[in-house]
Specification:
Strand order of the largest sheet: 4-7-6-5
CATH class of the largest domain: Alpha Beta
Largest sheet: 4 strands, mixed
Structural class: alpha/beta
Bound molecules: zinc ion
Order of helices and strands: HHEEHEHEEEE
Length: 173
């Protein structure tokens, strides 16, 4: 028993390390559209399987119409290939990704980057049923929507009435 354990143990440790390595490489890939956040922070990696050096990454696309989805998948694949993993990407459409899956750290980075992080679907709405978007620069909630589409289809353009700065708002879905 003891002997069997000592043989198995290093193997298990190696597999765990490889798995952790593959997972951290995949989740540290930067979003090609918003290069301040990693896709791990956006919460779009659902799962990862590792069979020897064959990695299968299960990814939930953010906005289905978003051209960044393919770019994200290619970026994950390239990052893992460089580390010596054969990689397959599988799209997971259900349950669909929502902006609620963005981590706290990811929200903070979006704000620092000048993009208003999405207001949680569950969080407060104003009396008129309008989402209150906070200015990423001065935190004022006195903001107005300029356009449904900002620099990309995933963002709406807003302006802060308090500090007059225009900014992008990461739209909720
Ligand atoms: Zn402001």
């Amino acid at each position: 028993m003891v002997k069997a354990l000592s043989i198995e143990e290093p193997f298990d440790i190696k597999t765990t390390n490889d798995y952790n390595l593959a997972w951290s490489i995949a989740s540290n890939v930067l979003d090609p559209e918003i290069p301040c956040v990693t896709i791990g922070e956006l919460g779009i990696i659902r799962d990862l399987n590792l069979d020897n050096n064959k990695a299968t990454v299960f990814v939930s696309p953010t906005y289905s119409g978003c051209p960044a989805v393919l770019a994200i998948e290619l970026a994950i694949q390239n990052a893992l290939l460089e580390a010596g993993f054969e990689t397959k990407i599988k799209r997971v459409l259900s349950p669909p990704w929502t902006t609620d899956w963005i981590s706290e750290g990811g929200r903070k980075k979006l704000k620092e980057y000048g993009i208003a992080p999405p207001v949680n679907a569950s969080s407060k709405m104003s009396l008129f049923g309008k989402t209150e978007v906070e200015c990423p620069r001065c935190s004022s909630q006195n903001t107005e929507k300029l356009s449904e589409f900002g620099s990309t289809a995933c963002k709406a353009q807003y302006r802060c009435i308090n500090c007059l700065e225009p900014f992008d708002y990461f739209k909720c879905i």
